[in-house]
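Q: Structure tokens for this one, please.
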Amino acid sequence: MPMLSTDPHLGATIPAFWQLHELVWGDKYVTGASLVGMPGIGLGRTKDISWGLTAAIVDNSDLWQEELNEAGTHYKVDGEWREL
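A: Here is the predicted structure, written as tokens:
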């Protein structure tokens, strides 16, 4: 039987990039992993086929600095204070 080996070029991190998924209906199934927010299963298999991806270079994280008021009850967005 054929074997699939894939390398998405993403290392192990905490929190993890990957979410594991499985969908079963009747005697059919699909199982695998996807990136958070990615529709569908990027690495996976069914009874008949398997698939993978390489070089999943996507913007899957954001970094920003929050500004809190002195009481720590509000944060600033676009020059306005909003309640936490």
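A few notes: The beta strands are 18-25, 28-35, 43-45, 50-51, 74-77, 80-83. The mean pLDDT is 86.
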